[in-house]
Amino acid sequence: MQKCAIVTGSSSGLGLAMTGSLLDMGFTVFGGSRTGTDIEHDSFYDVELDVSSEESVIEFYETIKDFTDGIHLFVNNAGICEMSSINEMSSDQFQNSLLTNTVGMFHMFKYLEPFIVKKETHVVSILSTAAQYGYPNVSAYNASKFGALGFLQSIKKEWKDQHMRFTNLFPGAIDTPLWDKMGTSFSREKMLSVDEFMSVFDFIISAPHTIQFPEFTFLHREGFLE
Questions:
Q1: Cα dist. 167→10, 201, 205 in Å?
Q2: Which domains does the chain have, with CATH numbers?
């Protein structure tokens, strides 16, 4: 049976890299993003997706239903991050982080269940160390990621009869184009490279299905970025 994967946020950065790697591994990949992905491959389906919109998520799943009824790998990657002190952050900015990073995850999981392949589906969530560790000036991001982790812990128990694998990845800061828009002075040399992140991702995806990696924290040897 052809193995199928979903990657949210597939248009750039980690999502783009993970999509390319999964195609190389032989997966059929359904990439979901708001802007589209510049990948041309016979096994890649570029599907418009805004995880913050429940209607968009429903349409996404309706589209892929025409091609498969089983998802073997779900890579939960879509998200946003804004850096701002609490005094400078607006209520709308804070709510937008929660809507995309936490409520968006709820939308994706709410409609994923019919596609679960019992004892096979593997859920990999890109959460960041911000789901474990409070950073200054990213309170909205921290809150959304802590909330996402709690949500995943609940869903794992709710779906325990499916015998799925859940892997929560907690990478430190990664040098992606996201930082170009942040206007920060952090040293990019103290961040993980995309290739370094991918070495961990590929290892987990390629490991025998009898092995479980519930949580995996990794960061640059310089430690937490502050």
A1: 19, 10, 10
A2: 4-218 (3.40.50.720)
